[in-house]
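Worked Example 4.2. Consider the chain below.
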Amino acid sequence: MESGGILAACLLCWSCGVCAVSAIRRADMFPYGALSGDQILAEGDDETSRVLVLARPLHFYDTRYSQLYVATNGIISAQDLPMEKQYVDDGFPTDFPVVAPFLADIDTSGGRGQIYYRVTETPGVLNRVAREVHRGFPDAKFTPTHAVVATWEDVAAYEERTRTAGPSNKVNTFQAVIGYDETDSYVLFLYPEGGLNFFGTRPKESYNVEIELPARVGFSRGEITYLIFSRTEGPHYSVTSDEQSVKNLYQVGNTGIPGVWLFHTGNSYSFDNIVPASIGGLLVTPPVQGHGLSLDTTTAEYGEFEEYADNTFDPDNQEEEEDYPLTGGDPEFQTALAGGDPSESLHPASPDSPSSPSEDTSHQVAYGSEDVPLTSEPRYNSEPRDRQYAPPDPPERAAEGGGQQTRQQQPQVPLEVVDVYPPHRNEPPLSPGGHVVSVDEDDVDFDTGVIQYTTENKETCARFQQQCSQNALCSDYATGFCCHCRPGFYGNGRHCLPEGAPQRVSGKVSGTVTVGSTPVALNNIDLHAYIVVGDGRAYTAISEVPEQVGWALMPLAPIGELFGWLFALELPNSQAGFKITGAEFTRRAEVIFYPGNQRLSITQTGRGLDDHNHLTVDTVVNGDVPFLPPGAEVTMDPFKEIYQYYPSVVASSSVREFSVASAERGAESFSFQLKQNITYRDCRHDNRGAAPETLQITMERVFLMYVKEEHILRYAITNKISPVGVQPTEPELVNPCYAGNHDCDTTAQCLPLEGRDFQCQCATGYRGDGRNCYDVDECAEGLSSCGAHAQCVNLPGSHRCQCQGGYEFGFDGRTCVDVDECSSSPCHTSARCSNALGSFQCQCLPGFHGDGFYCSQQEGQTVQPRSQCEQHRDSLQSGGEDRGGRPLLGAFVPQCDSDGRYRPLQCHGSTGHCWCVDVRGQERAGTRTPPGTAPVDCNRPDEPERPKTHCEHHRDSVPTTDRDGYPVVGAYVPQCEDNGQYTASQCHGSTGHCWCVDGNGQERAGTRTPPGTPHTDCSKPDEPERPKTHCEHHRDSVPTTDRDGYPVVGAYVPQCEDNGQYTASQCHGSTGHCWCVDGNGQERAGTRTPPGTPHTDCSKPDEPERPKTHCEHHRDSVPTTDRDGYPVVGAYVPQCEDNGQYTASQCHSSTGHCWCVDGNGQERVGTRTPPGTPHTDCSKPDEPERPKTHCEHHRDSVPTTDRDGYPVVGAYVPQCEDNGQYTASQCHGSTGHCWCVDGNGQERAGTRTPPGTPHTDCSKPDEPERSKTHCQHHRDRAQATGPEGRPVGGAYVPQCDAGGQYAPLQCHGSTGHCWCVDDRGQERAGTRTPPGAPPTDCDKPDEPERPKTHCQHLRDRAQATGPEGRPVGGAYVPQCDDNGQYTSLQCHGSTGHCWCVDDRGQERAGTRTPPGTPPKDCDQPDEPVRPRTYCEQHRDSVDTTSPEGYPLLGAYVPQCDSDGQYTPQQCHVSTGHCWCVDGQGQERTGTRTPPGTPPRDCDQPDEPERPKTHCEQHRDQQTAGPEGPPPGAHVPHCDDSGQYLPLQCHGSTGHCWCVDVRGQERAGTRTPPGRPSVDCDRPVPVAPTRRPESVCERWRSSLIEHYGGQPGPQQYVPQCESDGQFSPVQCYGETAYCWCVDQDGREVTGTRSHDVVKPACLPSVAPPTVRPLPRPDVTPPPDADITLLYAQGQKIGALPLNGTRLDPTRARTLLTLHGSIVVGIAYDCKENQVYWTDLSARTINRASIAAGAEPEILVSTNLVSPEGLAVDVTRRLMFWVDSNPDMIESANLDGSGRKTLIGTDLVNPRAIIVVSSTSSLYWTDWNREAPKIESASVDGQNRRVVVSDGIGLPNALTYDSSAGQVCWADAGTKRLECVSPDGSGRRVVHPSLNYPFSMVYYQNHFYYTDWRRDGVIAVSKDSSQITDEYLPDQRSHLYGIAIATTHCLSGSH
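Applying the procedure from the previous section yields the following structure tokens:
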């Protein structure tokens, strides 16, 4: 029916009240808005978006574009737009590329509408685009990889303010969606009902003329360039032409749905113009009131018109649609159920409202039964299928709490198939226990077509509540139950954790990792992780990592990223992974490193929560990683990753870059690609909805480190999760809860309030003010949920219940029930067991005595023999024990009654299965019950047992359960009737196939039916069997199913009639090709049709067959399909006319070349045209053809194209004139050589010119030519060029004289050899000379030739040259005398060795001399050979030369004298060391000298040997070995008596120091290279006899003093061992808040615990005797005007400021000070030096902030506990406090002039500052009895109290130079306050700090170090708010802080 007919029919229908296809609604548009990740275009009249960079280019028309722009005026362009006046008021087309859904003058100023846009890879969007395209273009092979969505919402037309009193209220809403893949692009325009209210706009320059231009809708290619500088209008396509056509946009569509328009807009190969969809539109009027959209139509999307036979969808095309199966649960489009009210499912709303369509919550339309197979990772769609990720759970496994499902009903879905279930808008409240959501089952159709539920098999809370967490509610739903965490807890219901509390993870890491070519096994090493949920920090540590793999695994941060995703800091509208997966999941990841392509797989399995609520995760890594140098540093920049969410699967793919810096290789950049999926068990019975389709995780700080000394691999990552596209906001505008810089306790939740306000609330199970929280002991306070017979165990934030002894958890997993101990026969065999509540009793039988566990026979009693049951039981309880004496776990132990007989009911203690047994203990058939079900009554007698039938034997032989009683999935189990016979109809439970069987269980032929089809009626008798026909044999021989009954896809199976004959029409089920066959099944020629075309009518008889023509033979011989019927691509198939003759015009379908052919199919010369050009008119006759000339034959014989028409590169093609003669000048197109040719095309000698030089004038005649001589022929052949015209390199070219004869002397141009030749060019023997030697005089006549001698033969073979005439390098060439005999002295030309030979050329023993030594006199006769000495044997055994005679470097060769004895002095030629040896060659002690020093006189006798001193032993250990000391090792220097020299210097570093008599360094004497060394003769203060205090002990003493001598139970005091080292476990006071530390006291990340069980910490391995430490030199901070310097234990860190913002990206360590505790810190801005106090070394130090600078000790005496430090840059003084003697001192900046300023009335002085401008000192004293802040002048005079009221622990002190106030931070009151120096103007800046220690002031901001956060915190003086935070990667306390500047600030102090 024509479109007009359809329209008429529709109108007629409407008149009857039936036609009802309305426009789409706003809710049906693609998701848009901020929650969908859209960007928002700025308000205005003529705005253009920022460039949208496309991840993959799209094709618009036939041009590739990589970027787009969205404009206010209703268009999307591929180039930046001009001003609107250049296009908005002009007609269509535009002169630039445009997609125009509504081109008009639009204005969004003043909030009149919003314009949203984004590029997305969201599966829901891509699926929907694919469905729309496949409906509109059924033949399209299109799978979109990206989409661009642009939405104009409620936008208004531009209006001049002078024309109207106010803006019009007419607004429009419309949308454009561009979907594209590698080759094609399609565009959708969507106009919702009521979305268009104005249809054009008035031109701005209309000069008061009342005209309105209709909106333009369509596409424009833009102008096209031609002839370089000219341009012309390109193709375009318009949808509208006038105002009425604009009004029709939402009433008509070309997709069958009003308001939806679809167009094919581009192709990568060729594209002429836009192609609209082929379905056609319908003009629609409003439907009858109350009518909804119908789903039971041909296209189940919007509803179609089944009542019309001429509907555009005809039933024959239904198969076509199924080629693109679509999902039945699309998250993007959902309508009401059939017959329902559409308003219930289509809710128009603003895009940011809760009911707005978004990419994870929107409406659904049933498109079909399956989904378009879109890959979830379209960028990598070439991934092999066997490596695509898929959910691991087998399809037959029911979802949580659901009914059973078969394979047919729930096919296995690959990962890339999207099936997201939309959430309900109104979620019912949850309730505990067996609450059932109200559902009227009569109104619900449970036959969903996917899973069938019944009330009989539905799982309920009453039966399965134990599967929920004890902190969860269980709720019943219509189809099953679900678990939901209680308020205050989070998780997936099966596992719930307290909200806000930190989380710990533990597990094992195993696998094999190959580094380079070395495999390294990881054998269950420990993994620990610690996550601060409140700010998203995740710390991971893997211990005992072998060093060879530890460095290489540093980039493998994805191991720790899993924990970051599970517990990430949640931004609005997002949720962390644990809420989805709970504690049981499997994560599979593949990492591919570039550029080496190493692959590593990671599998991480969540095993649940342990008894302490800690997550248990096991990790397996296998594969290859690139080698990283030891000591390398790896850095990884922050990055974002998008996670895609599917039912039960989360997937992501990303590429990461990382940098590696090492001393060996410098800085290098690498990358790796990560693909991962996380599978878990979800529950959808509540229809509460799945997670959003996509979420974005931001990893802001990535810290990677391998600690060599501890073999620990550490990762630290800060993680935030948010919707995709959320842009970072200015930090000062972000609520601290979302920024993670709040000051809430680590066990507290941060609750965001308005603006930047927030509230801290202790996590569930904790108590406090939110900034200080402590665990609630639910057990002690009676708050536990434990019932009777249960014991409460407190956990951090929670508790757990464990049953008391004698009780165990019952079926519900919560109630403690009595354990029937007697069931396990614990008593003696001669005792009776009596069970009781919580216990049992054993009592010896009569005649026995004992305690019941052991009974012995009383005197006079006989021993009753043990029964069979007792023997069976005892054998398992004793003989079945393992070697440790314990019963084997999991073994079944039979239970016996008091008489020793088998109990009738037996149960397996491990699996829970129960069954009845007979008196022999044999299981009675049919009595076994699974765990959780009621056991069989074993007292009932068995039915008389009949023998098992064949079916029962078959059934029982199938292993359906494993040894532990668990079911085995996928096996086929035959079904038997009650009488044991085979059930007539058999079905495979997994595959769904069914078939009929005979009495023997054999399948009856032809009865098998696939899943989902009606079963065969097996009651019908088989027809009498006739022999199989050829067709049936053919059909049955095709393997259509594998051994398990699964179908084999892609095979061609012939179709047979009922009588077994071939069906006349055959079709291939996979390819869609169809053809006719004859009675033998042979294809009838010419009947094959491709898919989608009408089939041939096979009933028509074949035309009488004429013989095949040449064309038809040619055509049919080309293999166009393979054996399975698939087409073969790229072959050229000739085209034939109906009469079999060649079609005059032939074209190659792959290359696009076309040409004309003659009657024989031969190409007609000159008719071939390339693709895209007009074809030659083949009807025109050829010009009368003259015979081809020689040139033309030559030219045409050169193969310039291959068989497919592609050009062959590099061939030389001669050029011919029009008359066919050779062009006089010929040139090679590839090489550029040119030459002249004669009439035969032969090159004229001497005319060839190389490329780039002027060509020879070929018109000039040749000189008269004489015939070539033999030499010239020889020369010209050698000068011949290769096929490309290039000369052959390295060839020998003979030289000819002017007469053409051989020159007497010939030389090889490449090798330099010269020789004489005769007149035939033959070399004259003995005349060849090597390069550089004078050539032979060739004029002398040859001597008479004698035969060659042995020497000459050998020499000539050695001198043989290679094919190019070059000698073979490095070979030994014997030297012969004039007579041809061997010269007596032979030398190797390359190695320099010489030796004497006899007349046979054999080497004479003992005559070889090394290079550089005089050769032997070979004329002297050989001495009588004596036996070789030990020295000579030693010497000769050393390999000094390679097989070719080359010397081997580095080997030590002993030197022997002429008698063969060791020379007294031996030297190592390579190292230069020399020493004296005795007669056996043993080194004489003390005689070794290093290179460059005079060797010892070895003739002097040894002194009587004294024992080696300590210094000599130390020195000899370092120098042992033939190669000397290892590089970089310090070799101590000893004096003649063997004592240490007082001054020792390191030969490599240049450092010098003084040592005592034991060689120990004297403190304070080390000097760097280039400095004068210390006078070691000067005395130093005598050290105390007792051991000096260790770092741990000093720190402990300092903190105890800090706490006033009485530390509280919650305060930390370091715990030290007896030897002063740190205890492995450190705790806060008396609490159980503990962690592990290394040997330097640094916390081991991830080991903190909050429970009663302290972490299991191993003591660190003792350091080596000589422990090399890094040089403590300075690494300057990056260029920054202002840098904060902070002290952190053993280092000083640098943190640059960017304005007043902290810049963590440039933070680094300024100075590492091993063994120090840096407390006070100050800065000298004039000399650019940093000063600090060292609490451990009890020193004051300084260092220049310059690369390589080293620390300098200024004060090292009479210091006990130096803390606060200040520098007066004006007076060049420094001031410090010492909190042990309680005094304040000063000194010059070099340490001189030291004096005490304040020495009385101080208790605990801490901080000190100096204000140079007022010559004032200020300090704090945190005396707990009377804390105060005091002041004095810089000379210690005028002391006074500034503040003493309302303070507690005034730790930090600074000066606000702008206000002239002194400011302090108090760790007791938690306040930051300021006051004027006179005590007035006191004010509170911030009321609630954590635990401040030190503070500085800069530009209205305070920066302080915080001991609770272990970081630097910024507070704004103006807003009194915390504005920023920096947490170093290595967590430990921060102490002092100072400001370093490039110039001195005003008011520096």
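The radius of gyration is 47 Å. The chain is about 10% helix and 25% strand. Compare this with Example 4.1 before moving on.
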